[in-house]
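USER: Fancy drafting a protein?

ASSISTANT:
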Amino acid sequence: MNDSDEGAGRTARSKRADARRNEETLLEAAAAVFVASGVEAPVRDIAAKAGVGMGTIYRHFPTRADLIIAVYRHQVEALAEAGPGLLATSPTPHAALGRWIDLFVDFLVTKHGLAAVLRSDDAGFDTLHAYFIDRLVPVCAQLLEAAADAGEIRSDVDAYGLMRGVGNLCIGADHDPRYDARRMVELLVAGLRQSRPT
C-alpha cells in the first residue's frame, strides 16, 4: 500500500466517523424533541435542535418511521450502556436505579409514539420489542441486584415486572395534564426501599 492509499483510507474512515457523529447528533436531537413534543413533532424542530438543514435529516432518514425506529434503537442502546455507568458514578445503587428509571421513562414516551407509527407493521414492532426486552431487562436486573445486595431494596423485585409497572404508569400520561407519571414512578421506586427494623 502506498502513501496515497493510506491517506485515502484515513479520509474514508474520517468521513465515516463524521457521518456517525452527525447521525448520533440527529438521533439525540430527535429523541429530545420527541420526549418534549411527541413523535409527530415537525421535522423542522428536530433540524433546529440538531443545527442542521431538513435535507440532512431526510438524507439519513427518508421517512418519519425510519427516524422513529432509529431513535428507538439509539435510546435502547443508550439505556443499556447507562446502567453500568450509573452504578459506577452514583452515590448508591438505589440512586443509580432511580436515575436509570428516569431515563427509561424518557424512552417510554418515544416507545408509545413508535407503537402508533408502526401499528400497520406488527411484525416490525414485535421485533423491536423483543430487542428492547433482550437489551434492557438484564441491565435493570443488574441495577436491582446491586441495590438488593447493598440492602437498600427488597430482594424479590423482578426486573421485567418493574419495567412493565413503570410502563403502565406512563401510559396515557400525555392525555391528562392532572396526571404526573414521573411522580408516580418516583413513588414506585421509593417503595422498593427495604424497610429498616426500628
